[in-house]
Write a structure and sequence with these properties.
With about 190 residues, the chain is of the alpha+beta class. The chain has helices at about 10, 35-40, 125-130, 140-145, 150-160, 175-185, and strands at about 15-20, 25-35, 50-60, 65-75, 85-100, 105, 110-115, 120. The chain has six helices and eight strands, in the order αββαββββββαααα. The N and C termini lie far apart (about 80 Å).
């Protein structure tokens, strides 16, 4: 098995699913993800997190199909006001696990495990699914509905406004001469 990207093996043990003893069919797994989970990946962009992940593993004769769904909140700063708020997030991910000669996770929708492997680690997939579901621009819901004081934002806008510049309409006389020649040819 490849080297893991997280530090706390004990906490992450719950994310190793042993599929050898499972009967063919669907199997359900639930995870409650908090900030400690992200710290194991050295990811400190959230002030807090409360995300529920539902995982359905369907075991077939030659492969596994994993369907992840998550919903919850992450506590992040507003890009406009700087205030922290609980941002609702949700998303899904589908993954097919096949068996081959060697480990390969180059394709984001396909994982190849070596023959003889008996478990799959889903922590990295949960981590990526949640982090990628956070929008690039995070705006506090109070800014949209007017319930939050945006005086800091208004100060920011006044500092960021470009200063008015007067554009000189004066044209170099040489260009005027050339322009007249061009107009003369078109007539």
């Amino acid at each position: 098995m490849p080297a893991q990207r997280f530090r706390g093996i004990r906490m992450m043990k719950a994310f190793f699913i042993s599929f050898v003893g499972l009967k063919p069919g669907k199997h359900h797994f639930d995870y409650q993800i908090g900030n400690t989970f992200f710290h194991e990946f050295d990811y400190h962009q959230f002030e807090g997190a409360s995300v529920r992940v539902d995982l359905v593993l369907e075991k077939k004769s030659t492969l596994l199909e994993l369907s992840f769904k998550h919903s919850g909140t992450v506590n992040v700063p507003c890009d406009l006001t700087g205030e922290f708020f609980d941002l609702p997030i949700k998303g899904s991910l589908n993954l097919v696990v096949q068996f081959g000669e060697e480990y390969n996770d180059d394709n984001e929708e396909l994982l190849i495990l070596p023959h003889g492997e008996y478990q799959v680690n889903v922590a990295q997939y949960i981590y990526e699914m949640i982090v990628l579901s956070v929008p690039a621009k995070r705006i506090h819901t109070g800014v949209r509905d007017g319930s939050i004081d945006i005086s800091n934002y208004e100060k920011y806008i006044t500092y960021e406004q470009p200063k008015e510049e007067t554009i000189s309409e004066e044209i170099d006389p040489r260009w005027e001469k050339l322009k007249s020649l061009l107009n003369k040819d078109n007539k």
